[in-house]
Amino acid sequence: MKHLSLAPGQPGHASLHPATPTPPARAATPPVRPEREYDVTEPGAQAGNPAERPRPWRERLWRITALRKALLLALLLLGWEGLARWQANDLLLPTAWQTAQAFASGIAEGELLRRAQASVLLLLQGYGLGIAAAFVLTSLAVSTQIGRDLLGLLTSMFNPLPAIALLPLALLWFGLGQGSLVFVIVHSVLWPLALATFAGFQAVPETLRMAGRNYGLSGLRLVVHILVPAALPAIVSGLKIGWAFAWRTLIAAELVFGVSSGQGGLGWYIFQNRNELYTDKVFAGLLMVILIGLAVESLVFQPLERATVRRWSTQR
Known about the structure:
- There is one protein chain.
- By secondary structure, the protein is mostly helical.
- The chain has a domain at 95-307: MetI-like (MetI-like fold).
- Helices cover 66% and strands 1% of the residues.
- It contains twelve helices and two strands.
- A two-stranded antiparallel ribbon has the order 1-2.
- The longest helix is centred in the middle third of the chain and has 33 residues, at 111-143.
């Protein structure tokens, strides 16, 4: 019989000598390095954030929104002044300085303020009635199928119809008074606001609706407590669109008919001065219309957005 010998390391090799136990491996310990502190504060760094360098003063000024808008406005005024002086025809285009003088004169005499007050008060009446009518329609639309069909049919019919086109009918129905102007304002506010509000209601997640129903909410209570807060960005957007439509409609209606009991608004002020060829006063009236629009945007809608949709993180 042949003796088979396997070399160590080959398969099947088994050593006859008992394996010597290997000592357990010692856990490797990283070398301890001495701690050092480095001063990363750079010269001129801010005390609150030492790693950030202060921005140049030009960049800090440019980040101010009001300053950027003021710069754009100054450029527009300079362009207006240059174009008016180049044309040299005050009847067609008065200069910015002449318009400012006419505006200051109208404010000092009180006529421009009275006209603006008459227009704003009339606008608030129609705007409030339009908001109430839009809320009723959208509440009915989210509650019943008949309400949805009614809202869809009415908006398809009347939303494309210009509000100023209804002024002749309004004069027949409501007479030569403020009622006809309020009617066309309500028409201009109602349909865009109703569409925006209903679209916001439709976008509310079903989870919120189910949560409201679990608390026993239905009908008007569900609309007020669940749908309105969730759809608030769309509602605010609809309010802004409705305000713009109402303001433009009122000025256009007053250009056609703006006198009630001897009093007229800004539209009539513009129309009357155009007939008398006081172009600088026409531009002063237009400037008042623009300033009122900017004031409403800055003092009403922006604080409303900050207090609601931005505060609740539903819109950036």
